[in-house]
Amino acid sequence: MHRYYHRAMRLTFLASLLLIASGMAHAQQVYRCGNQYSGEPCRSGGGRVVDVSPPVRNLDAAGASQVFLCVSNSGGRFWSPDHCRERGALVERIEPVPAGLPWEQQVDIADRQTRQGYAVQQQAAQQRGASSPGVTGASGDTSRCAHFNERVAYYDRLARQPQSGASQSWIAEQRKEARDQQFRARC
Description:
- It contains four helices and six strands, in the order H-E-E-E-E-E-E-H-H-H.
- It is an alpha+beta fold and 187 residues long.
- The strands form two sheets. Strands 2-1-3 form a three-stranded antiparallel β-sheet, with no helix packed on it. It has a three-stranded antiparallel β-sheet with strand order 5-4-6, with helices on one face.
- Helix 3 runs antiparallel to helix 4.
- The chain is extended and about 80 Å long.
- 7% of the residues are buried.
């Protein structure tokens, strides 16, 4: 009976491997048609095939290592080969670097990657036309945005004072209306 059990388990294992392998061989393509994705080609013929395979990232010991950019409680930043919590700090970034290099070279590479990452973020924000929140509106009217900020701050101060439930509800409604106007003015 023991021998039959092992044989049945081996057959089950082989069958499951074959099933997985056949599923991989017949992976379904995904098509992008405008802003929609589908398992079928676009009717207009203008869609394109999208690669949905999982990203491959080799961070094993032979290929790459991780360097941590830490922020201390006093606000200072430093690089560490160990997790920041071991030094009583918070993690700002984790950068993959080649393993086997001297520490100074790993820090140089991580610094470069960090600067490139921040530059890409800043460029994307500029392309979207993002501005500092609460500073300027779509027309550049700073006084109007400042007015909305002052109104919201006023309602925040009021809400922190002891008030009845009805007063707190009124304050919340007024604050929401001020925020809505601020949003509509693109501040």
